[in-house]
Design a protein that fits this description.
two-stranded antiparallel ribbon; Phosphate-bind_PstS; phosphate ion binding; Phosphate-binding protein; D-Maltodextrin-Binding Protein, domain 2; phosphate transport; 380 residues; nine-stranded mixed sheet; ABC_phos-bd_PstS
């Protein structure tokens, strides 16, 4: 397994954001999972998960939602299960919308979502969270990459208006004047653009829509809050993995998915012309510069964040998402509550956050992570 170089980054604003540029397939299993006795919890642990506190975790914990965080979740689940014998975390990557639906129907202990709960979804959650409600707990951030497959084109630059027109089926040829202007000297083919989007409800779709709405309002007139693909035309695929596979297999294609999927599939990604001095590549480091400026808009135990998608800061990649775990602040099921809290305590811990950079994600800003760490133990 080949690792790219690691770089550290400290960003201010809402805290230090430590990011490594190393990108690997979570399926590679680079962690040492040699089991050793855990005297504190009576289970087994691995070298990579030696500090995980099981704290009464037992049995099966069901969760579902965002496919954006699947690669991160795979790492977390592997490490947690290695540390806590007899525990099974079952996370279904069915999309943010599907996860929230299952959560509000009481089918899962928590949902993963790439966007915060809407007001009506919070209201719906009160039927399941007896005496409480669903809250948004930020857990991981990262760039939404625009991947493409175009023979002979290794470096492609696009801006928000051009992307909006491509995904809205208004630019349909690769040698369109708008694209050639952004790529002087690049030989672009006179071929049809095959644009792929998500077929399922997705917070990744919503984050892309928010970016296009804020950065290209004259060209993207669709509802930025929609988790369903709002535009006409294009081709659909299920989940981030489905879109990535479609782009990888189709010449002349373009689509959107988290950076980890582009890395895993060796898909070229677009650099974004934001109006800064130079186009910005989709990297964890560059995404962290945008995420570091996020503001907390939630109240109480809710830590929903507001992102600046229209940033023109030097080196800041603007198409980013912060993905949440959604759980009841009060009214969680008694039989799964200890496992829920133990698992989320691990995912937001320094150790849990550290593994994210190796999967193409950006760990949480230090200040936000600290707030999540104070809230998880209070879930009841």
């Amino acid at each position: 397994m080949k690792l790219s170089r690691k770089n550290g980054l400290r960003a201010s604003a809402i805290g230090a954001l430590v990011v490594s540029g190393a990108l690997v397939l979570s399926a590679c299993g680079s962690d040492d999972n040699t089991a050793t006795p855990d005297k504190k919890d009576g289970g087994s642990t691995s070298a990579a998960a030696s500090d995980i506190a099981c704290e009464g975790a037992k049995g099966q914990l069901l969760a579902a939602g965002s496919s954006a965080q699947k690669n991160a979740m795979d790492l977390w689940v592997k490490n947690f299960q290695a540390a806590c014998s007899g525990v099974e975390i079952n996370y279904q990557a069915i999309g943010s919308g599907g996860g929230i639906t299952k959560f509000n129907q009481g089918q899962v202990a928590f949902a993963g979502s790439d966007s915060a709960l809407k007001e009506e979804e919070v209201a719906e959650s009160q039927k399941i969270c007896k005496g409480g409600k669903g809250v948004n707990l930020p857990m991981v951030g990262g760039p939404v990459a625009i991947g493409y497959k175009l023979e002979g084109v290794d470096n492609l630059v696009l801006d928000a208006p051009t992307l909006a027109k491509i995904f809205d089926n208004k630019i349909t040829k690769w040698n369109d004047e708008a694209i050639t202007k952004l790529n002087p000297g690049v030989k672009l083919p006179d071929s049809t653009i095959q644009a792929f989007h998500r077929s399922d409800e997705s917070g990744t779709t919503q984050n892309l829509g928010k970016y296009l709405s804020e950065a290209a309002p004259a060209d993207w007139k669709h509802d930025p809050k929609s988790k369903s693909w709002p535009a006409q035309g294009g081709q659909a695929a299920n989940g981030s993995s489905g879109v990535a596979t479609a782009v990888k297999d189709a010449e002349g294609s373009i689509g959107y998915f988290e950076l980890s999927y582009a890395t895993a599939n060796k898909i070229s990604t677009v650099s974004i012309d934001t109006g800064a001095a130079a186009p910005v590549a989709a990297t964890s480091e560059n995404a962290s510069k945008a995420i570091a400026a996020a503001k907390v808009k939630g109240t109480g135990s809710d830590l929903a964040l507001s992102l600046d998608y229209a940033t023109k800061a030097e080196g800041a990649y603007p198409i980013v998402l912060v993905t949440y775990e959604i759980a009841c602040d009060k009214g969680n099921k008694a039989e799964t509550l200890p496992t829920l809290k133990a698992f989320l305590n691990y995912t937001v811990s320094e150790e849990g956050q550290k593994v994210l950079a190796d999967a193409g994600y950006a760990p949480l800003p230090a200040e936000i992570a600290a707030k999540v760490r104070t809230i998880v133990p209070t879930l009841s």
